[in-house]
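Subject: Re: docking follow-up (pyridoxal-5'-phosphate)

Dear J.,

Thanks for your patience while I sorted out the input files. As discussed at Tuesday's group meeting, I've set up the holo structure prediction with pyridoxal-5'-phosphate included as the bound ligand rather than trying to dock it afterwards. The sequence and the ligand SMILES I used are pasted below, so you can double-check that they match what you have on your end before we go further.
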Amino acid sequence: MKRVYNFAAGPAILPEAVLRTAQQDMLNWRDTGMSVMEVSHRSALFEELVQETQQLLRDMMRIPNNYQVLLMAAGGRGQFAAVPMNLLGENSRADYVVTGNWSHAAYIEAQKYGSIRRVLPTDAVDLVTIPEFSTWQLDPKARYLYYTPNETLLGTEFPYVPQVGVPLVADMTSCILSREYDVSQFGLIYAAAQKNLGQAGVTVVIVRDDLITEPLSITPGVLSYLVFRDSNSLYNTPATYAIYIMNLVLKYWQAEGGVAAIEKINQQKAQILYDYIDQSDAYVNSVDPHYRSAMNVSFSLPTPELNIQFVSAAKQHGLVNLKGHSRVGGLRASLYNAMPLAGVKTLIAFMQQFVKEAV
Ligand SMILES: Cc1ncc(COP(=O)(O)O)c(C=O)c1O
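The structure tokens for the complex came back this morning:
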């Protein structure tokens, strides 16, 4: 069967070479005579896999030594709770930059654990632009400032890292490894794996040593950074296969030239798609050009009926999962690292053809 170009927002496309390696390893991983799924997480071999995976990420993101790399469970939403539980302290305060669906959901969850403020001068959720940094109302006594560098739903991305006097927490679920970041500018970065790191089940948390302290007393062990640091991410049985896939994904991208090389191609992919949309009379992207995401490109045709037709016609051409999120409708093409330039070019050619035939 022919493989399709999968534009899903997550779980998302994986490098084909990774899938082939996984296929080869399936019955006999590293000469164990077993699949990696059957190997004990307490075995020396699996511990080695965990350490190797952490080291690969350290190398690729140039993570300084005073940061821990934790491999946790419960996805992005797990971190919506873990971040406040671990960083707030009793009766403490935090600031949230709500720019879209995911930072809003994180803000709602955090309210269960402390005194949480929104800092932007708007109560809207699905923003198509990001208010100037000078308008943010920041609490100098906040325990941290939380933001989502790339909002997956509408496709808004920060072109800069906010410089603030408190630890900065970033949900990089939909942008980790998509471009170069200076990790030392952050107190904590986390990312669920199912977009740029592999498959669902494992969540990476990169956290500065001094921020790992006793969490709130109600914190379950599975969400405690202290517990995960002290058990080297093997507190309980982790998502072993997800860690294995992440290991393969990291090795693959390292061999392809690392984050600098990935970023260059990602910029090119996004540029040609936005350029095409902007010069087209039929397709519209509503995001302020300054804040457009390189990972998630939302667009729409003049009517909801045309959007529906587009999705099914695209599928016939092997271009799948182009429907926008149900919350906002329209169309969306997610261009994660594993989406090749050829996939984006094929999409643009299809968009041109669709306009000629249907609009
Ligand atoms: C930026 C961002 N944060 C968090 C999440 C939620 O992740 P999960 O489904 O792993 O809880 C998503 C999911 O798409 C996301 O895009």
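A couple of observations from a first look. The first strand starts at residue 5 and ends at 6. The chain is about 35% helix and 15% strand.

Let me know if you'd like me to rerun anything.

Best regards,
T.
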